[in-house]
From TrEMBL:
Keywords: Secreted, Signal. Belongs to the NPC2 family. One of its GO terms (cellular component) is extracellular region. Residues 24-147 form the MD-2-related lipid-recognition domain. Residues 1-18 form the signal peptide. It comes from the Eukaryota. This is ML domain. Pfam families: E1_DerP2_DerF2. Its main location: secreted. One of its GO terms (biological process) is sterol transport. SUPFAM superfamilies: E set domains. GO terms for molecular function: sterol binding.
Length: 154
C-alpha cells in the first residue's frame, strides 16, 4: 500500500511541462487552486504515468501574503485511505524557479518538482492531493488530480 501511495504521489508531484493545464480540481478546503498547473503528459484525467519515468509538476501561483518558507505535501488517496508521501525536496523554497524565499504578497511564483516513478511501484489508480504550506502550516495553494500508474510498456 505504501508503494502505491508513493507511486500516486510521485505521479501527481512529478508530472512535467504540458502544453495546457492538467485536469486538476479544488481541494475543497478553502485553499486556492494554482493559477496554472502543468503535469508532463497529462491533459485529461486520470493522469497516466509509466513506471520508470520521471514526472515533472509545474505550478504557478500568486502568494496571498508575505511568506518566508514553503513546504510541499503530497497525499495519495486510494480506496478512501489517505497516505502522506514524503516529497523528495521538503524545502519548497528550493523548488522555486523564478524567485527565492521570502516571497512578497501578490508575487507570482513558479514552482517545479520532479518525481521519479519507480519500476517497483504497483499498478494502481487513485487521487493525489498536493498542497504547498507556509511556515505556519497554512495552505498557500492546493489541487487534487486523478492518477494511474501503468507498466512501462503500456
Amino acid at each position: 500500500m505504501k508503494q502505491f501511495v508513493s507511486s500516486v504521489v510521485l505521479i501527481v508531484a512529478g508530472l512535467a511541462f504540458a502544453s495546457s493545464d492538467a485536469p486538476v480540481t479544488d481541494c475543497k478546503n478553502g485553499v486556492s487552486l494554482p493559477l496554472q498547473t502543468q503535469i508532463s503528459g497529462c491533459e485529461q484525467a486520470p493522469c497516466v504515468v509509466k513506471k520508470g519515468s520521471t514526472v515533472v509538476l509545474n505550478l504557478t501561483f500568486r502568494a496571498p501574503y508575505y511568506i518566508e518558507e514553503l513546504r510541499p505535501e503530497a497525499v495519495a488517496i486510494i480506496s478512501g485511505i489517505s497516505i502522506i508521501y514524503p516529497v523528495a525536496e521538503p524545502d519548497g523554497c528550493k523548488s522555486l524557479v523564478n524567485s527565492t524565499c521570502p516571497i512578497n504578497a501578490d508575487e507570482i511564483v513558479h514552482y517545479q518538482l520532479q518525481v521519479p516513478i519507480l519500476s517497483s511501484y504497483p499498478t494502481v489508480s487513485g487521487r493525489i492531493k498536493f498542497t504547498i504550506y507556509d511556515e505556519f502550516n497554512k495552505g498557500v495553494t492546493c489541487f487534487v488530480v486523478a492518477a494511474r500508474i501503468v507498466a512501462a510498456g503500456s
